Amino acid sequence: MNSNTSSEKRGTLQPRRASGRQRVAELLAAASDLMAERGYEATTMAEIAARAGAKIGSLYRFFPNKEAIAETLLQQHIMALHDEYEMLAQRAADLSPEELADVLIDLMATLYPCMKSLPALMEARTDRTAIRDRSRGQALAGIAAALRICAPGLEEQVAGDIAAVVLNNMKVMLGMTLKDAPTTPGAPDELRRMNRLYLSSRLAPCRATKAVRGSGENC
């Protein structure tokens, strides 16, 4: 879309009233759905307004152009991931390795409905590699932190290695959910079972104290 208008110089409007915030949320949800369905480039401002049941003037009131919508959505997605891993860290001490495994394996699939436009947004950016690396690093750090809270005796490097395996399992689960990866009706449950067994075997020996390292377990 050609956004070479005076509105391009205006920033995104932050509404103060609840009704305005609700309208912005509806517009962003419509934009996210359309971009997930059609891609970033194919989505137009007019289509976003129509999907949200809003007048085009209402959309331009809050967002000067499509780029502003995309930037807002991207920041929302990044913040949602950050908040999710923060909440996971707060819960991890009270979770067993099997419970933590279940939470992690379904995390991406659970978040997908509110982050479905992320792949389209990433593909539209010239700095997508840097953003993807930062997002991956954030995910690995968040998973590793939860693992070490759940199993205090786990060494940092080992936690990072396990986090990488778990992150790949999470991506496979999302692919199965979206039917983008080879799957069968029972395959997601098998993946959950595999992730459960894996984390139980790796975290259980390291849950008590760091003193368990002397027992020969690789923590």
UniProtKB/TrEMBL annotation:
Top-level taxon in the UniProt lineage: Bacteria
Portion annotated as DNA-binding: 44-63
Keywords: DNA-binding, Transcription, Transcription regulation
Transcription keyword on record: yes
Ranges for domain HTH tetR-type: 21-81
Keyword Protein transport: no
Region described as Disordered: 1-20
Protein name according to UniProt: TetR/AcrR family transcriptional regulator
Organism: Komagataeibacter melomenusus
